[in-house]
Amino acid sequence: MGLQEELENKRKEIRTDSYSMSVGELLSLYESKEIEIHPEFQRFFRWSQTQKTRFIESLLIGLPIPQIFVSQREDGIWDVVDGLQRLSTIYEFAGILRDENGKVLPHLTLDAADSLPSLMGKKWDDPSAPKNSLNQTQRLLIKRSKIEVAILKQESDPIAKYELFQRLNTGGSIATDQEIRNCLLIMSHREIFGWLKELSKNEAFQTCISLSDKAGQEQYDLELLLRFLFFRDMDEEALGKIPYPDVSEFITRRTIELSKDPELDYEVEKDAFNVTFKILAEQLEDNSFRKYNHQKGKFVGGFLVSAFEAVALGIGYHYKEFRDTEVDVVDRVKQLWLDKQFTSSLGGSPGGSISTRKRVQNILPIGRELFQV
Q1: Which residues contact 191 (CB under 8 A, 6 or more apart)?
Q2: How far apart are CA 18 and CA 98, in angstroms?
Q3: How much is the pLDDT for 72?
Q4: Nearest by Cα to 45 from 81, 91, 21
Q5: Residue 147 falls in which region: left (phi positive, over 0), alpha (psi -120 to 50) or beta
Q6: Does the model's pTM come out above 0.85?
Q7: What pLDDT does residue 349 have?
Q8: Residue 40: CB partners within 8 Å, gap ≥ 6?
């Protein structure tokens, strides 16, 4: 297939439209629950008080506002794909913004702005303090301001919504691939996201991975859970055909497809997860995924994803046998760090860099063989 044919096929998958809408219309859409801004995203997209004030100032003085992207769902409601903070700021200033539990948040109070220093302390409308409120003329200036809204129509290919979200937000406010995946799940499969979040709170799991504060804030525990879910029982043929050199891209694609996988048994996966990390927490605790230094006779360093792929996924593959048999996991983990095939797959030697796909393809069979019961 040549470039032109690929281009034409891709363009057929995407149906878009666009409108120039007033802020007043966008306020009405939110109040009637016809647009969804996903308040759960607030921890990923967070404007400062200064940024919010500057945005309201831009509306008042008539500066052009960047386009907002939305995706139309089957029920006709618009999901905000890009523009969350712009709309959240408008709704918070107008006093109608709701949190994820449906509670209306306090009105936004502005700071002084560069062009309009008198915005200091101003609210949308405060009957108890009229001097601290915008007047009717000023509120109408904002409500009549126009914002271009680009709409990804419902008949577009389902993957297009996620690609749009990923492309618009990668490298922006969101810091990690996993935070992008979280947003995708919240938009499309909130129940599954809730299931994953609850599973990730497993005390044994958190003890074993022992992540840094930064990794925890970036939701890396959820990425590890997805790795366990997607790779634990993957057959060798599928493992050899992973289409992306970067495993992170594969995990994102599988996350998008998660709810459409008829073969994924959530109860079985939960059982495998709980058994695996119960055994590891009992025998290794926070040494589960650290390097074992045979010369020093102890575990050293921090968490290693390569060790997670060998140990957690190796035990997870055989979890039924592990549940019924006592196995010295500590001894097998120590053996792992003597395995030259394993250590050569880490890509740590000069000139030894390998793709994450190749690393996973090499390491998973090693872990499965090592932890046979």
Answers
A1: none
A2: 26
A3: 83
A4: 81
A5: beta
A6: no
A7: 41
A8: 100, 186
171 falls in which pLDDT band (50, 70, 90)?
very low
Comparing C-alpha atoms, which of 225, 262, 230 is closest to residue 244?
Answer: 230
Structure token pair of residue 372: 């046979």
Buried b (16+ CB within 10 A) or exposed e, 128-144: eeeeebbeeeebebbbe
- Alpha-carbon distance values, 186 to 39, 107, 285, 296, 307 (Å): 10, 26, 31, 46, 30
Query: Taking 70 as the threshold, does the pLDDT of residue 9 lie above it?
Result: no
Strand 68-72 versus strand 146-152 pairing type = parallel
Structure tokens at 344: 């050569």
Of residues 261 and 77, which shows the higher confidence score?
A: 77
Q: Are 218 and 173 in contact (CB under 8 A)?
A: no
In SS3 terms, the chain reads as CCHHHHHHHHHHHCCEEEEEEEHHHHHHHHHCCCEECCHHHHHCCCCCHHHHHHHHHHHHHCCCCCCEEEEECCCCCEEEEECHHHHHHHHHHHCCCECCCCCECCCCCCCCCCCCHHHCCCECCCCCCHHHECCHHHHHHHHCCEEEEEEECCCCCHHHHHHHHHHHHECCCECCHHHHHHHHHHHHCHHHHHHHHHHHCCHHHHHHHCCCHHHHHCCHHHHHHHHHHHHCCCCHHHHHCCCCCCHHHHHHHHHHHHHHCCCCCHHHHHHHHHHHHHHHHHHCHHHCCCEEECCCCEEECCCCHHHHHHHHHHHHHCHHHHHHCCCCHHHHHHHHCCCHHHHHCCCCCCCCCCCHHHHHHHHHHHHHHHCCC
